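User: Could you check the structure of this?
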Amino acid sequence: MDFCDRTIGIIVENEDDPYATVDFNEVGAKLPLKSGIGLRTVVENQQRIELKFAVGNETRVIGITDREPFVFESAVPLPKDTLVIALLRVDENGKSTLEIEVPEFNLRQEEKDLEIDFWQETLTKGLSVTEDDFTKLQNNEAVDLSKYDENGELVAGVCASMPELMEQLNALIGLQEVKDQVQKRINQVEVEQKAKAAGAQRIGGVGSLHMLFTGNAGTGKTTIARMLGQMYQQLGVLPNGSKVVECTRGNLVGMYQGHSAKNVQDKFEEAKGGILFIDEAYSICRDSNDNFGQETVDEIVAQMENNRDSVMVILAGYEREMDEFLRKNSGLSSRIRNKINFPDYSVADMVQIFKKFCNGRNMHLEDESDKLIYRLLDIKSKQPDFGNARGVRNLFDEVLESQNDRIMAEIASGEQLTPEQFDTILKVDLEKVAGDTLGDEHTIDDLLAEMNKLVGLSEAKAKIQEMVDNIQVRKVMEERGISVPDDHGTLHLIFTGNAGTGKTSIARLLGEIYTKLGVLQKNVFVETGRADLVGQYQGQTAQLVMNKLDEADGGILFIDEAYTLINGDKDTFGQEAIQTLVAELENRRSHLMVILAGYTEEMKEFLKVNSGLASRLSNEVYFADYTLDELTSIFFGMAKKRGLNTDGLDRNFVENWIQVNKENEMDFGNARGVRNLLESAIRKKDSRIANLIRTGEDLSNEALISLASEDLQ
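Assistant: Sure, the predicted structure tokens are below.
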């Protein structure tokens, strides 16, 4: 053998660069050859070094084989930072020698006479190679490893057959709606082809190839685009479907007149026969003053028409931004009939993705870690811009860093770790990443009990309990295979009642309960009003409303004093706010709860302003005024929370005091009025105590926190 028929080299994993490569030979390099790297020990008294055998290429390990590793056992403990040289030699006969040298201590160990073919001896175990690729490797044939991702999973490649591609699609975690839409596209092509083969006279073909992908970051848009291209190539629709040219505004929008059009033309030429994937497409033209952006859009429209049968254009981005972008550019929207929306992953899906990353690194999780991973992802995924699968990957990397820190501390303390210990992520590693966020979680029963402990509100509590009962029964029916509607219906609510009757408190608890039930994706509560929603010039209001809806998406948007959104027939900005809100109430009916709150009579009149409001807000929760006895209980409860001692107060005296103040104030405000009275009493207590201190009286700690009847004047 004169030449090496594959790439051979050494890959070192480290914290900064997962795969630091050293001195790889090129396929076809003349034999003999060698690769080597100088390493430094990372702990004191290190005596063991392992070389594992893997399949991969110059940039990526596809997977570790199950062949026993080459183990170097030092005869003496090596100090930290000792130079260790790892060498791989291949002679002119294709036989390999693995060698470890420690020059400072004149130590050397080697394993000789390994045939190049030994790199495939145990390839299948633990690796996601196709049967066809394994056969090629066994026969010493070349295999395109670019088909395998960094987790050792097969991604769409030129060699994948249609059944293999469909198997890959269906093996993806979650994304059932996306899979269904892809299947519809494939069915359309296959029916047209079968009809043509059968001699049918139907015309029209497969229609427009262009597509719109909407959804948040990390939901698999690029992955599906690559798979779809491969499928269309296998079906003969796109001759070069495996080629996906990705670009954004930065690649398309030019710096001078005519530059943008040329950029677009070049990208279409590059993607000829394949896919042009334009990510964050809504950013191409930012506003009416963006002349170069508009030139880009116009040229994309022209090229989409000119290349409608030879290039698939996929416009991708956030759903709302893409809908608005297409609304303003009718030429684009008229050329894109196929739309696929990519929903966010559920927490259960993200747990499976986390485990997939773990398996891809040949690592294991400590027993009974699932619940901890679920809680960690449940909390982390509610953070802004978590990024779905991308966020899971980042979180997995954090957990690995936590594990590395723990292992280094254990080694420094003198522990001798087994290979299994190096490969196992413990619950303490997960807990360290979580920090203080994994406290004892409230169950649904805990939250309902907390609601029922609130003073009064019997009618509102009964309504909330009824809503929760409905969802829980529905879940039991689903578990038993009994047919139920696809969604829970509209989530939106009207809260009516006077000020200070607990509307906001109940709304917050409802958000937590619905999140636990899985009805709402996130425990997000956004409180807002007219000042945040109604603008001062045409067009500003709609954007303000959309911003708040986006902020609360997946949770609750609570609009207090909602009737103030419009002030009379001439309030055009208020009308714009309501019109925008009505449209979005329908669009987001299954994944956002909007609660409109306010005084009962005012809310009745408000709902008459727009018929769409009343039809979309049919569920009302009424909050009755508190009785005097309930207000008195609220006073003592508030005082206790403030750490005050009320033992010296007579309950009847307090109740009479509240009644007098309530009757003397037109807008007492229920619990809000009680809070104001308590604040007044605290100020009087402090003045009373300050006078006593000035007279030299020595007061006990209890006296400093005690309310007296004279403070309630």
